[in-house]
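Sequence dictates fold. Below is an illustrative record:

_____
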Amino acid sequence: MENLKVSLIGVPTDVGAGVRGASMGPEALRVAGLGRAIAAFGAEVRDCGNLAGPSNPELPAVNGFRHLAEVAQWNLAVHQAVYAELSEGRVPIMLGGDHCLAIGSISAVARHCRETGRKLRVLWFDAHADLNTATMTPSGNIHGMPVACLCGHGPEMLTGIGGEMPAIRPEQIRQIGIRSVDEGEKRFLHDLCVEVFDMRYIDEIGMRATMEQALAGVDQDTHLHVSLDVDFLDPTIAPGVGTTVRGGPTYREAELCMEMIADTGQLASLDIVELNPALDHCNMTAELAVDLVESLFGKSTLMRMHRNYR
């Protein structure tokens, strides 16, 4: 970890969400000691501060999208910031903010991978599939659409941010912990052949086997991006989110996910999103998120070797 250079990028907006409050997420993560926790592993941590963008106008949906122009502005800023840090050989950590921001971060990662010839694997930890479109969405909230946009299904001002459409292919993503999927999304997931490890699957085969499958094929040439929506976690341990869904992973299951990712040694970028301090209890969800990030960067009970999941 001594040569690892990490950049924290705050993105204080809830413009893509239906519930206000995720805009305070970046500061809650800082208060919980995220930078210090990563630095403790020998990494050089640079806090880039917060990006600036339009305020939340709190308007109804127009043609199936809420706040499309504002979402596009924020995501363009995220794309540019994440791409700049990747170009310097750093590991960008995007502190959200709602999950619509993954359009900007992952499109930047995909662009970087195309230019450097690396394989991309996206691990999407979430209670929701986030594969809605304007015609399927029940709300118009764009934090329910980032996977669709990244796969090329959405308005060009979002799908084209990375300079190539689609930014990613469905086979590059693995979704883990899913337990709330809208009716239209179920068919769309099936049609796109997105690999989804929902909670029933995890219940049936266990988290270890699930993660082995999600990480299968990750090797030294793989850029591993983790997009962590804190509503992935069961709300009994992570109440500070605007879209809680019962029946999520336990603390130990979540830790195992992060520890197995650390075992690969290939983590190269990270989103932490949907943390809503207004709904939290004594910052416990932010502290849990920091705990999980520590495991991503190598915290473990015993010394462990890097491994490939073939």
Q: What stands out?
A: The CA atoms of residues 184 and 294 lie 36 Å apart.
